[in-house]
Amino acid sequence: MIRKTKLQVLDIKPIDEVKLTLADGSKVLRKIGVARFHLRGKSAMGFVVFGEPKDEEVLGVTVLETMGWSVNFKTGKLKSKRVRF
């Protein structure tokens, strides 16, 4: 989820709208688009949620795994992972 103002600057257009459940359990309707993500020399395409000003910005695990990364939840650090399709 990235604030919609930032996505508009990047010229990323919404392609659909989805109902999401946020971490606090509340349900919201948000637009989604497609973006290319780059992180530590790897890249991937993935969906991006057009966040509102109060929404936390996060990079989802699906995009991270597509790029070949996983999160070590004990340390909070990224580790390289084999990508399987």
Task: Throw out a few tags for this protein.
85 residues; 6 strands; two-stranded antiparallel sheet; 14% helix; four-stranded mixed β-sheet; mainly beta; globular; 46% strand
Describe the structure.
This protein is mainly beta. The chain has a domain at 2-57. The chain is 14% helix and 46% strand. Strands 1-4-3-2 form a four-stranded mixed sheet. A two-stranded antiparallel ribbon has the order 5-6. The radius of gyration is 14 Å and the shape is globular. The chain starts with a strand and ends in a 5-residue tail after the last strand. The relative contact order is 0.21.
Q: Secondary-structure blueprint of this entry?
A:
Elements: E1 2-3, H1 4-9, E2 16-21, E3 27-39, E4 42-51, H2 61-66, E5 69-72, E6 77-80
Parallel strand pairs: 1-4
Antiparallel strand pairs: 2-3, 3-4, 5-6
The termini sit apart by 24 Å
Total of DSSP H or I helical runs spanning 4+ residues:
2
Which strand order does the major sheet show?
Answer: 1-4-3-2
Global mean pLDDT: 90
Low-confidence regions: none
Q: Shape, please?
A: globular
Largest sheet: 4 strands, mixed
* Secondary-structure content class: mainly beta
The secondary-structure element order is EHEEEHEE
Strand segment tally: 6
Helix content: 10-25%
